[in-house]
Amino acid sequence: MTISGECFCGKISFEIDGVLGETTSCHCSRCRKAFSSQASAAANVDPERFRWVSGEDLLTSYVGEHGFGISFCGNCGSTLCTTFQGCVYQITLGCVNGDPGVSIDRHIFVGSKASWEIIPEGVLAFEQGPTDQ
Ligand SMILES: [Zn+2]
Ligand SMILES: [Zn+2]
Q1: Which ligand is nearest to the CA of 35?
Q2: Alpha-carbon torsion 106, 109, 114, 118, what sign?
Q3: How far does the chain reach from its first CA to its final CA, in angstroms?
Q4: Is the dihedral of CA 104, 110, 112, 114 positive or negative?
Q5: How many helical (H) and strand (E) elements, i.e. helices and strands, does the chain have?
């Protein structure tokens, strides 16, 4: 199975061989800004199985503290992936085409969610990081 994805304008696209890894939605205040949304929603990927298909030259990156960063389309602004020390380690689920066969495995930092967000009942949720409890 090949999973594909692209940004809003379609100039940057990627493919992943096989299945996506663990999926996480982070509700912390930093992710709200980084992803311009109520939370992040991203899947771990094996760098060996991930490749850019088009538009890699349009990727623009912002690297924050500790070497973690995000890469987005310089044309339309879609956030396509998160990076650690320059390597892609998660892709954003919002840019994946169709049904990649996953749902969100865990919601983290729900203790600092936006006042206007309602977390669905029955999901695996952590007040902070999954290892902090
Ligand atoms: Zn784009
Ligand atoms: Zn976060």
Answers
A1: 2
A2: positive
A3: 36
A4: positive
A5: 1, 10
Distance between CA 36 and CA 50 in Å, rounded? 24
Q: Does domain 2-22+41-106 have CATH number 2.170.150.70?
A: yes
133 CA to centre of ligand 1 in angstroms = 38
Q: To which residue do tokens 């669905």 refer?
A: 120
pLDDT in tens, 87-97: 999 999 999 99
How far, in Å, CA of 98 to CA of 56, rounded?
A: 21
So where are the chain's domains? 2-22+41-106
Cα of 60 to ligand 1 centre, how many Å? 11
Which ligand is nearest to the Cα of residue 26, counting in written order? Answer: 2
CA dist list (Å): 20 to 42, 95, 98, 104, 132: 10, 13, 13, 11, 25
Per-residue pLDDT of 13-57, as tens digits, reads 999 999 999 999 999 999 999 999 999 999 999 989 999 999 999
Cβ neighbors of 90 (< 8 A, separation 6 or more) are: 24, 42, 43, 44, 45, 81, 82
Question: Which tokens sit at 86?
Answer: 């320059």
Ligand that comes closest to the CA of residue 82: 2
